[in-house]
Each structure stands twice: as structure tokens, then as C-alpha cells.
Amino acid sequence: MPSLRQPPAERCSRLGGLVKSVVASLVALVVFLLMAELGLRGIYAIRASVIERIALPYMLGDLYGPVPPWWDNLRILKPDEGLIWKGNSNVQRTYIDVFSPVETEEERRVQLRAFLPSRPDSLKNNPAWQISLDSEGFRDQEFVDQKTSSAFRIICLGDSWTFGANVGQDQAYPQQLQRLLRQGFPQANFRVLNMGVLGYSSYQGLELLKRRALDLNPDLLVIGYAINDSSIAGFRDKDMPGYGKTMRWTKALGSFLKKNSETYKLLRYLAHTITERPKTMTDILQGMAASTADGSEVLERRMMEPSEYAQYEPWTRVSLVDYAQNLRAMIELAQSRGVGVILLYNELWESSPYRAALEKVAQATSVRLIDSSALLAEARRTIEHRLDRELGLEPAVRPPMSGDGMASRRSIEKNRDTRGEVGGHEVEVVFRVYSGHRRVPQGFFIAGAHSKLGDAVPNVIRMYDDGTHGDQQAGDHVWSYAATFSPGTSVFYVYTNSGREGAWEGLDVPHVRGFKVDAADAGKTIYRPIETFGEIYLQADSWHTNAMGYELIAQAVLQNLKRDEKGKAYLERFKVERPDAAMSASKAVPGRRL
Predict the structure, then answer these.
(1) Which of 47, 136, 412, 569 has an alpha carbon within 20 to 30 A of 30's alpha carbon?
(2) Domain annotation covers residue 90
(3) Model confidence pLDDT, tens digit, residues 104-118
(4) 519 — alpha (psi -120 to 50), left (phi > 0) or beta?
(5) For residues 95 and 98, what is the distance between their CA atoms, to the nearest angstrom?
(6) Do 250 and 130 reside in the same domain of the chain?
(7) pLDDT tens-digit series, residues 28-78
(8) Which residues are within 8 A (CB) of 235 and not within 5 positions of it... i.e. 6 or more apart?
(9) Minimal CA–CA distance to 558: which of 355, 331, 370?
């Protein structure tokens, strides 16, 4: 029989051919991937160059899903080894404000997902705002290290509240403070530096103070961190620097590809879009009512007691202990240089344990504290009460029978048969929403995760502007609906405008409204403050205040500056402040629609 064994020369020849084939395939693959990488980078660069205005598509519950990789060229933050991230150099962007009503949630989603999105009719008239970052990535003019002897330099350290999220360049509170100082003290030489960075925590603020802020020789330091320290992120900021150096090589490779390969990022994005199952608004509302992670952290945190938050504290970006230590370290560093300090609590969450920690630090160090949450809450109540008065309706959050207005009493009695008697332990709540200038073709609806609010099914629970169902005055453009709840119930709800039954159409701003029914109101009828469809008073989004709120903060900083020892001594060298300049903005607050 002939031998089945191949001669060595033939085996080597076959092996050599196989190796050449594999090498050729690998070379072809590398060339293909390289061409794909270069092609994608070129396409993304062209896209970035032709987009003049960027839409920020806020999604209800902050559930954005996979973000397309072609947005990377428009990001304004970049990684930094010590600070974790910082602003990009010399960036200019124009953003469209899309925290506004739309017809469907898909209209918001397409602003994020479409390669070349076009604005739907519901967004075409929305205002725009600009940002301009200097060579160091800060939202300000270039900083000059050397300071003249006549200058008084104020540095504002903080997060997105200091940066001025969702407002124009001159509407951030540091820029508004600069304007107020120039108007009030034209002969003085004040310079306010905005060193706020989006997403920063007190850990990053302390690092920034050491690395850059103190080198600018400030006279006063305004420190505002809280919202990101308390964020439930699953990691600690202090563990992030150097994290990449300790990764296993497989994880490090994946991290490298996610950061540097456009081909990898595109394939990953496409895979995620295939497997994604977006939550509906019904899912979000029901999840929030059940106190699960399905809902938005924004509202859940605002309605959470400090004791309840303790279970989540191990997953926050900065622990309460570290938060207090970071603030103390910043204060000590500043005061050791003779720099005055003002603390800011820039958050909407009034009952946050981080607020309490900040108050303790302020008391222990004898540093002035401005509580923006209380400042804004008071201004919001002014807006709500003014709207009540202008429309001649029942003041909010007051039992209607406790007043002496006969018209309100007659209205209550007139509607009692429709609304039903209030049980001894129940609270009747009258929801009220004002249409303002918006068209209401069919009517307003309310949907919430409660049987009295349609079990989160949209466009089922109709509201009324005909003097019935809790409505106090027919035809005044305030739509009302009355429902009874047990004390202690957390109520989450949204409004819709004239959509089809069962379909999420005619949507309000992407924000879940909510409150907790007060046990002290058992047996009473409580009018909710009049809300306005299409806006949240004094808010630019679910997380931040708006330009008017930033102005209130700037005014508060100005008043505290005049009490600061170093600031007071500096101001004594100049003429007395013009009272009209300082008071004009504050006098305008109650009369301005917000």
C-alpha cells in the first residue's frame, strides 16, 4: 500500500500557504477596519461642522438608552487624569432648548438618534442658548494670572449650577453677579471668574482648587457642590483617578476601544439599539409609585426622607463623610491664604442629607451659607400665589372652607355631588393646570400611577374648565380635576393636551410632577398650586433652575459679599451702591412670568 504520509516538503508548502492565507486575511481585515475607521471619523467630522444648533433631548425619567457615537465630536468635556474630566478647550456651541411640550416621545428621541435630525413643528420656535469655553475649558473669558492691586477677584467653584446649565453665557450666576457688581459699583474693579464644570463633585472641586484656582489669587471663593456628590452612580469619585492602570488587560482593551475606535462604538451602538426595550411613560410612572429604580432619580430623591436615603449612600459619588471633609479642606486652604469663603447649596432637593451636612460645615467654620433650594422655593410660592390672585381663585394649599370667600364656598358646594364627600381620613386634592397661551383643542388630561388618576393610562382622566369636577371658574383657562387620596400617599403624575385615549400624545415638558399627601390635611379639600402646562416654575429642566433663578442666586451672593470682612473693606473705598441697580431685578421677580 502507498504511504499516506506526506513528504516533509509538501507539508511545509501547505503550512506556508495556510500562513500566507491567514496573514493576507488579517491584513485585509486591518485595512478594512482602518478604512472604516477613517471613513467614520471623516463623516462624523463633516456632520459636526454642518450642525449649527444642537438639540438637548431630555427624556422622561432620564432614560436615554444608547447614545449614537456621532455625538462624540460635539461633546464639551474630555477625560483628565487628576480631575476625572474637564472642559474642552476653545469650544463654542449653540443649543436648542427642548425642555418643552412635544406631540410624542418619539419626537424627543429622534433628536438624539437621527444622524441629521430635523426639528418637528412643536420645537421650531424654541429658543436657543450659547456656551463659549476658553482655552482652559471654563465658561468665561481667558483668565489672567496676574492681578492688579485695585482688583477684587471672586472665583466661583461649582458644578452645572455654577457653569449655568441650559442658559445663555451671560445668564449663569457668576456672569450675572459680575453684571450686578458693575451696575452697583461702577468705580470698583471686580472680576468674577466662572470655574464651574458640568458634573463636578466636591472631590473634583477640591482638586481644581489645588491645581488652578488658588494660583489665580482670589479675594473671595464661592463654593457650590452637592447635586453630583449625592448622585447614585455606583462608584466613588476618589477611586476614579488611576483606575485604568489597575484594570485587567481584557477590560483595559474594551475601555480603549470604547474611547478610541469609532467602528467599535458604532457596532456597539447598533447592537444596543436592537436589544433595547424603551420603557413607556406608563412604566416610568408605575415604577416611581412603587419606589423602584424604574423611575427617575430626580423626583424620587426630592420626595425621599434623609433616613430613607441612607440605604443608597454607599453608592453615591461622594460619601457624606467625604463631602464634609472636602468642604472643610477647601475652606481651610482658602482661609490659609486670606481668602474669604461663601458656601452655596445649589440643589432643588430641600431635604437632602447633603444639605444638612453643608449646614453643619458652615456652622462649624463660621462661613456664610446661601441655601438656593429655600431661595427658589420661596420665589416659586410667590409665582403660584400671584397666579391665584390674578385669576381670582382659591389660594393654593388651603382648605377652601377656612376662608370667607362666598364665591369659593358656593363653587365647592356646587361641585360636591360630582366630586363626592371627603371621607374622614381621606384628603380631596384639586389638581389645577393653566393653559397660558397654548391651544387646547379637546382638553387637558391627567395621568398618574394611581387608580384615581387612571393607573397611568394616558388621555383617560379628563380635566375640566366648566366649573365642575373641582373647577372653580368656567372659562378661565385653568383646568381642574378633584380626586381623593389617603394621607401619606406619594402621587406622581403628568399632564397631556388633547391626545388620543390610551396613546401618549400631547405631552408636557419631560418632567414627572409629584407630591406627598399630608396627613394633617385628612378630611380637607386641598387645592394644588396652579401649574402651567409647558413649564416648571423657576426650572430650566428637572435638575436645574433657570436664568431667573440664577439671578436670585447672584443677588444673594452680592448681599453676602457686602457682609464679608474683606469684601466690606474693599467696598468702603468706593461710592455707595446705587439702590436701583441692586433692587431692580428683585422687584421684577413677582411680576415676571417664570
Answers:
(1) 47
(2) yes
(3) 888 888 887 888 777
(4) alpha
(5) 9
(6) yes
(7) 878 887 888 888 888 888 887 878 888 776 766 666 778 888 888 888 999
(8) 317
(9) 370
**Residue 330 dihedral angles phi and psi, to the nearest 5°:** -65, -45
What the block records as the C-alpha cell of 468 is 365642575
Helix ranges (DSSP H) in 51-199: 105-113, 160-163, 173-184
Percentage of the chain lying above the pLDDT 70 cut: 82
Instruction: Provide the CATH number for the domain around residue 417.
Output: 2.60.40.10
Let me know how many helices (H) and strands (E) the chain has, helices first. Answer: 17, 18
In a domain, 1, yes or no: no
**Are 28 and 92 contained in the same domain?**
yes
Name every residue whose Cβ is closer than 8 Å to that of residue 198 and which is 6 or more positions away in sequence: 76, 77, 87, 159, 160, 163, 165
Place of cell 445663555: 168
d(CA 343, CA 223): 5
In a domain, 305, yes or no: no
Number of domains making up the chain = 3
In a shared domain, residues 255 and 127: yes
Q: Which residue has the cell 456651541?
A: 93
The reply to whether 298 falls in a domain is no
CATH of the domain at 177: 3.40.50.1110
User: Per-residue pLDDT tens for 140-175?
Assistant: 999 998 999 899 999 999 999 999 999 999 999 999
Residues 375 and 485 in one domain: no
pLDDT digits (tens, 9 = 90+) for 291-320: 633 444 444 555 566 667 778 888 899 999
Regarding whether 123 and 59 lie in a shared domain, the answer is: yes
Indicate if 386 and 433 belong to the same structural domain.
Answer: no
Three cell numbers, residue 5:
504520509
In three-state form (DSSP H/G/I as H, E/B as E, the rest C), the secondary structure along 364-419 is HHCCEEEEHHHHHHHHHHHHHHHHHHHHCCCCCCCCHHHCCCHHHHHHHHHHHHHH
The string of pLDDT tens digits covering residues 247-294 is 455 555 556 666 678 888 888 888 888 887 778 889 888 888 776 334
Enter the DSSP assignment of 466: S
Asked if 40 and 115 sit in the same domain, the reply is yes
In order of 49, 107, 158, 462, 540, the CA distances from 345 in angstroms are: 38, 35, 10, 39, 18
- What range defines the domain where residue 465 resides? 402-529
Place of cell 393607573: 455
Q: For position 423, what pLDDT does the model report? A: 56
